[in-house]
Amino acid sequence: IYIDFAHLATGVDVLANSLLCRLTTPHGSVIDSPNDCIDVCALLGAGLTQADMQGVQQRVQREVERDARVLGATVSASYNTGTRAMTLIIRVATATGPFTMTLSVSNVSVALITASAK
């Protein structure tokens, strides 16, 4: 294993990366935390209606708020039926201040588009 100490994550990026892991790991697959994590890619597998988006927002919010560093979160989700892609905008409150992260979700990948302190 090679660790590149010149490029270690700091600040907002550390928490954003942790939350990204929580949102891309299948539920129940972490031995020490069997009730944690959701795989947002899997949510797209069956397709989503606009009515389903409220449930997606609530599930993502609950999962983000499981992290002890998160004081609260709000989630806005949109789904493009043509491309079958979802965008998640997650606003996170922490003891060191708020930040926003934006995820682009397809049925095969999740990309962290931005993670910025506000």
Helix residue percentage = 10-25%
Query: Helix and strand succession?
Result: HHHEEEE
User: Spatial order of the strands in the main sheet?
Assistant: 1-2-3-4
Can you summarize the main beta sheet?
Answer: 4 strands, antiparallel
Structural class designation: alpha+beta
Residue-averaged pLDDT: 85
Radius of gyration: 14 Å
CA-to-CA gap between the ends? 35 Å
Low-confidence parts, pLDDT < 50 over ≥5 residues? none
Percent in strands: 25-35%
- Total helix count? 3
Shape: globular
Number of strands: 4
Keywords:
118 residues; alpha+beta; 4-stranded antiparallel beta sheet
What does this molecule look like?
With 118 residues, this protein is α+β, with helices and mostly antiparallel strands. The chain is built from three helices and four strands; from the N terminus they run αααββββ. It has helices at 12-22, 40-44, 53-65; strands at 70-80, 85-94, 99-105, 110-117. The chain has a four-stranded antiparallel β-sheet. It starts with 11 loop residues before the first helix and ends with a strand.
Strand-helix topology:
Blueprint: H1 12-22, H2 40-44, H3 53-65, E1 70-80, E2 85-94, E3 99-105, E4 110-117
Antiparallel strand pairs: 1-2, 2-3, 3-4
Q: What is shown here, in short?
A:
By secondary structure, the protein is an alpha+beta fold.
